[in-house]
Specification:
Chain A: GO terms for molecular function: DNA binding; sigma factor activity. The complex is a heterodimer of chains A (187) and B (72). The N and C termini of chain A lie far apart (56 Å). Chain A has ten helices and no strands. With 187 residues, chain A is an all-alpha fold. By secondary structure, chain B is an all-alpha fold. Chain B has two helices and no strands. The termini of chain B are far apart. Classes of the chains: A mainly alpha (187), B mainly alpha (72).
């Protein structure tokens, strides 16, 4: 008989959705928990808070797994779920009043004239200082940076996950790269 | 050139006890869903089939009585 560790993600998911198999879910946890944990670490610094976030995310995944339709890779869906959860957590915790400014419009005008920050420039940043910079950047900007540079998502995938147009993704990415370099240089 | 975003991922180590906490929670949710399903779906189904069965039996008895009467 095939071991759970030999099952593909899709086979495990089918098993969990059809019978609620928690052992199969444990296998899915083993495959992805380390990455989810590292991603949550980008959003909160307290260890116990990170543990609670990871726990909430995996419990949420178990309950919502039925809604995964297989349009994207499971990992893409999981990371997107993780980012949404982290951003919501941050917004709840900080409870800061947000002035709704349509940043897409604001940046639309400047994107064309400002210099694009190249991937080489991003890759030249030192890991420790980048980590500190990520602690300071807005969660929404952090999400697009992690999707692009940690998860290797294409603009199209990001557009599907964030439920915005591809041009809006490019704009957000441009803004986030600019901000992270600004924060990095100010440290 | 190496990607510093990927290096950040390798720095963080997942605590081992967390799996037990997650699986305990998930087992509790499964139990809750199973019990809810039992009362919300299986029990009404069983009651429905009992009532249906009783109605069928009643029909059979009435048919038999009517048949006996007509034979008399």
């Amino acid at each position: 008989m095939k071991k759970l560790s030999e099952f593909s993600d899709d086979e495990l998911i089918r098993r969990i959705v059809s019978s609620g198999d928690t052992t199969a879910f444990g296998e899915l946890y083993d495959r992805y928990a380390q990455l989810v944990y590292a991603k949550c670490r980008n959003f909160v610094s307290q260890s116990d808070e990170v543990d609670d976030l990871v726990q909430d995310i995996f419990v949420g995944i178990y309950v919502k797994l039925k809604s995964f339709r297989g349009d994207s890779k499971f990992s893409t869906w999981l990371y997107s779920f993780t980012y949404n959860h982290c951003v919501n957590h941050y917004n709840r915790e900080v409870k800061k009043k947000r002035i709704e400014v349509n940043l897409e419009q604001v940046y639309e005008g400047v994107a064309g004239v400002e210099d694009e920050i190249s991937d080489d420039e991003i890759f030249s940043l030192a890991t420790d200082k980048l980590k500190m910079s990520l602690q300071q950047i807005e969660p929404a900007d952090k999400v697009v940076l992690l999707m692009k540079y940690q998860d290797d998502m294409s603009v199209r995938e990001m557009s599907l996950m964030l439920e915005v147009g591809e041009s809006a993704v490019k704009m957000r990415l441009h803004r986030a790269k600019k901000k992270i370099v600004e924060i990095y240089n100010s440290l | 050139m190496s990607n510093p975003f990927k290096k950040i991922l390798q720095d963080e180590k997942l605590p081992e006890y967390l799996k037990e906490r997650v699986i305990d929670n998930v087992n509790f949710i499964k139990l809750t869903l199973d019990v809810t399903g039992l009362y919300a779906v299986e029990l009404p189904k069983a009651l429905h089939s009992m009532i249906e069965g009783a109605a069928e039996e009643k029909e059979i008895i009435e048919d038999k009585l009517n048949k006996d009467k007509s034979d008399d």
